[in-house]
Design brief:
By secondary structure, this protein is an all-alpha fold. It contains two helices and no strands. Helix 1 packs antiparallel against helix 2. The longest helix has 24 residues. The two termini are 28 Å apart. Keywords: Membrane, Transmembrane, Transmembrane helix.
Length: 76
């Protein structure tokens, strides 16, 4: 099993990439809200749960998906 698919950017699939981007954006928004607004909206932390869920879904698809599935990479 290729565990580099969990963290190596070139090995991530689109689900993992979107989830990590979302996590970083949410964390950034969280810091801005905390320091400049003074509070975060109720339920804001559910965003992290959703991003984690998406990442885990992408990871499972990446690790256990069929390697012969057509990918969106175009080789010329």
């Amino acid at each position: 099993m290729d565990f580099s698919k969990l963290y190596r950017p070139s090995a991530l699939n689109s689900f993992q990439f979107i989830a990590l981007t979302g996590l970083l954006m949410s964390a950034g928004a969280h810091l801005i809200l905390h320091f400049f607004v003074g509070h975060t909206p109720e339920g804001f932390n559910w965003l992290y749960v959703c991003w984690l869920g998406l990442y885990l879904f992408g990871t499972a698809k990446n690790l256990f998906g069929k390697p012969d599935e057509p990918h969106h990479h175009h080789h010329h």
